[in-house]
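fyi for ur records
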Amino acid sequence: MLQLQNLKKYYANQKAVDDVSLHIKKGTIYGILGPNGAGKSSLLRMVTGITIPDEGQILFDGASFDANQHSRYIGYMPEERGLYKKMKIGEQTLYLAQLKGMKKIEAMQKINYWFQKMDMHSWWNKKVEDLSKGMSQKLQFVTTVLHEPKLLILDEPFSGLDPVNSEIIKQEIYNLAKAGTTILFSTHRMEQVEEICEEIALINQGKVILQGNVTDIRNQFKHNQYRLIIDRALQGYDNGLISQHNFEYIFQFADQAASKALLNHCLQQNYHIQTFQEILPALSEIFIQQVEGSTASRQFTK
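which gave:
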C-alpha cells in the first residue's frame, strides 16, 4: 500500500528525515515510534502531502504519490486536532466529509451510522468548544474515517480518552484493518504499540534504527529468561535462578536445553505448574536501549 524510498527532509541546516525507507503492506497496523524531535511528524506530513520530500520517493498503492490525486484516499488524524470550535458538530462533520468528495446523501448515511455506533447521536447541534477532550477525540476519529480511507494515519489517537472510549477506538482500529485499511499509527505509549501494532519502525534523529515484526523484534532482544509459577516451594533445583517471590521463580539460561531440564524436574517431582513461559522484553525496554545506543554512537562519531 505504501512505500517510502530514501526519503530526506531538511529544515535550514537540520535533517528532520534522513534517508528513511519503509514498506507498509495493505491491511497492516504499522507503528511509527521515536522520542520527541525524532522526525515522526515530518515523515507523516510528507506521507499526507502537506510537505514534499527534498529527496526520495513515495509510492501509494504502486503509483508515485500525488497529493491532488491520492489525498481523498487518506485519513489523517494529527496530534494537533483540527476542528472548528464554533461550528456545530453535525454541520462540521458533513462539511469535512464533502471536502473528501462524498455526496451529501452518502455523507449523511455514514454520519448517522458512525454517530449511532459511537454513541454521538445527541451531539448534532453541540459546538466543538462545548465538548470535553475525550468527546472531541471521538469526533476527530469519526471525521477521519468517515470517507473510508485506504490509508489511515493516526497520531496519538488515544490522547485524552478514558479507558472505555480507548477500548472503543481500539476495536474500531482492528475492524478497519480487518476490512483492508492500512493504518499508520504514531504514539509514545509503548504498551499500546505492543498491543495494537503488527510491525514497527523506530526512528531517532531522522533515521530508522530498528524495524520489523513486533514479535520478531521482541524475540531478537530476548535474554533467555523464563517465568515459573508452581503450587509449592521448588526443591532441588537452583540452576539459573535469578529471583523468587512466593512460588514464582525467574530463571535465566544459556540455552533451551536448560529450560527443558527445569520443566522435566518439575514434572518428575509432581509440581502443579501454573505458568511456564519465556519472558520477552517489553518494547519500552528495547526502545530505550536502542535510542540511547543510537544517540551515544552519533555523539562518539562527531
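The chain is about 35% helix and 30% strand. thats all i got for now
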